[in-house]
Design a protein that fits this description.
alpha+beta, about 45% helix, four-stranded antiparallel beta sheet
Length: about 280
């Protein structure tokens, strides 16, 4: 299952394209085109126009999810579930939010992890979440994080002149996203430790977690690392760039310590990476 994510530009919420999210605004998820969801998830502010949804909350028989009601009845300023319920509750009043303006999902959740952590927190923790979705006997959980953050070095950094507005906005965006990515993964590690501690306290055998971070920063060769970090985020790539990205993603995954541990624990064997042909034609993403 693939879940596109967008950002609610009104208050920075992560908007997930799921039946539960659409139920809150009394909209038919099955009738919403996937192409529109993808367009919303890639609607970078200032470059693409937001995708606008109308809020029909209150015009259907959808009940308020119990986790929202329970969290709001007992406000806990230290609880992530409470703040998630507080923000999600804004969709239930069309007078406050008659329209939803959706932009690039990376603005609120560039790695797509925070939305997952919010769902788990709202359920009461990993054990409760797995039980809720029918996987209560799960013994292993893997998070494979594909982090394609670029790190292009701007030319104006070498010049004694004031860069333009576009250059500053681009640099600010990259800095914030890269820093936010680290904070998000660090938050996931803390959650994993909390879930493990909860199992130990309850006398249960802890779930084995594997946090697998696929990132260009893991490349030890400086020239190779800079090559991939300088590939621009664009709507098309040359065919040889696509092949090289696929190849390096495979190598980064197979050489990841947590991934190798998971494969060993499962009794598997890591295959040999495939060679890449160096082509020069153009290919769409």
């Amino acid at each position: 299952m693939v879940i596109p994510l967008a950002t609610d530009a009104n208050d920075g919420l992560t908007f997930t394209f799921t039946p539960d999210q659409f139920a809150l605004i009394c909209s038919d998820f099955k009738q919403f085109p996937l192409s529109r969801a993808v367009a919303a998830s890639a609607a970078f502010p200032g470059i693409f126009s937001p995708i606008i949804l109308r809020n029909y909350a209150g015009q259907c028989d959808t009940k308020v999810p119990s986790w929202i009601t329970e969290a709001l009845e007992k406000p806990d300023l230290t609880s992530r579930a409470y703040y998630h319920a507080l923000r999600t509750n804004t969709y239930l009043d069309p007078k406050i939010k008659p329209y939803i303006h959706l932009v690039d999902g990376g603005v609120a959740d560039n790695l797509g992890l925070r939305a997952s952590m919010d769902f788990i927190a709202a359920s009461g923790g990993m054990r409760d979440y797995l039980s809720e979705v029918g996987f209560d006997k799960t013994r292993r959980v893997a998070f494979i994080i594909v982090d394609a953050a670029t790190q292009e070095e701007p030319r104006w950094r070498l010049l004694d002149e004031i860069p333009g507005l576009g250059a500053i906005l681009g640099a600010s965006s990259s800095i914030m996203i890269n820093k936010y990515n680290f904070e998000t993964i660090d938050l996931l590690r803390r959650y994993v430790q909390d879930w493990t501690d909860d199992d130990v306290a309850a006398g249960k055998k802890p779930i084995s977690f594997y946090i697998i971070h696929v990132t260009f920063n893991a490349l030890t060769d400086k020239k190779e690392r800079e090559y991939f970090q300088n590939i621009s985020t664009t709507l098309y790539l040359r065919e040889n760039q696509v092949d090289k990205l696929r190849s390096i993603a495979e190598r980064l995954l197979y050489t990841s310590g947590p991934f190798q541990k998971m494969v060993r624990d499962l009794g598997g064997k890591i295959p040999e990476p495939k060679p890449v042909d160096d082509k020069t034609s153009t290919s769409k993403k």
